[in-house]
């Protein structure tokens, strides 16, 4: 494995939001590369990758969060939103005051009555205590067994990938008898293997 390959692997694991210990474990287990914590941190610094520096522009992060809140993101907590930010290339602090302000602003705004709906109020109040506004609680308790069964049946494809690349990836998976997996570490390894093969054939 070349130094450049190792840099790409470490950068990929770092961008997935993995902890330092997880990166060291993956390097040892999957790539037979043994690094100390100190060496890993030094290499990440040489690549310009920091956990607490180079944060993304707060305006771009806020716009991304508002887009997530329009869809299913409004049903999740800050940990889920933080991981979505990381997955989409935003470097943010979990405790970032500005993000807390975004959440507070969203929950503080008032939903007004419209000709299609008589219910009005603050989003968090409507979600947590719908009976205060004279409406029913439409949320349903979920059984974890049923939820896990549904998750296994679903394949969440948030890919913005080109269709030709997706077709090529499907061909590579079939030729090499690779299978889709839900394990993020296996997915990262699969991605690196596919990327290497595609690079060699270009």
Fold and architecture overview:
The protein is mainly α and about 200 residues long. It folds into three domains: about 45 residues; about 80 residues, no CATH class; about 45 residues, no CATH class. It is built from ten helices and no strands. The relative contact order is 0.07.
Short description:
The protein is an all-alpha fold. It contains ten helices and no strands. The chain has helices spanning 3-15, 20-31, 37-46, 58-70, 78-87, 97-108, 123-128, 144-153, 163-175, 184-201.
How many discrete structural domains? 3
Percent of residues in beta strands?
under 5%
The string of secondary-structure elements, in order, is HHHHHHHHHH
Counting DSSP H or I runs of 4 or more residues, the number of helices is 10
Let me know the largest β-sheet. none
Distance between the termini: 20 Å
Amount of helix: 55-70%
Estimate the mean pLDDT confidence.
76
What integer value in Å does the Rg equal?
21 Å
Q: Low-confidence segments, ≥5 residues, pLDDT <50?
A: none
Shape: extended
- Number of E-state strands: 0
* Assembly state (oligomeric): single chain
**Structural class by SSE content:** mainly alpha
């Amino acid at each position: 494995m070349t130094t450049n390959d190792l840099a790409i692997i470490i950068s990929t694991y770092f961008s997935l939001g993995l902890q330092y210990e997880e990166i060291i474990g993956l390097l040892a287990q999957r790539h037979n590369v043994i690094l100390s914590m100190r060496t890993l941190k030094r290499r990440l610094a040489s690549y310009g990758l920091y956990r607490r520096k180079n944060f993304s522009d707060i305006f771009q992060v806020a716009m991304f969060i508002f887009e997530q809140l329009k869809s299913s993101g409004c049903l999740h907590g800050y940990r889920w939103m933080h991981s979505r930010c990381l997955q989409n290339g935003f470097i943010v602090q979990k405790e970032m005051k500005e993000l807390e302000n975004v959440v507070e602003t969203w929950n503080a705004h008032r939903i007004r009555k419209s000709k299609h709906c008589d219910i009005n109020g603050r989003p968090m109040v409507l979600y947590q205590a719908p009976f205060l506004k004279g409406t029913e609680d439409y949320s349903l308790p979920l059984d974890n067994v049923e939820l896990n069964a549904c998750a296994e049946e679903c394949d969440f494809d948030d890919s913005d990938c080109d269709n030709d690349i997706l077709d090529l990836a499907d061909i590579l998976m079939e030729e090499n008898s690779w299978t889709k997996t839900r394990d993020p570490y296996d997915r990262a390894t699969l991605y690196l293997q596919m990327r290497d093969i595609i690079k060699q054939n270009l």
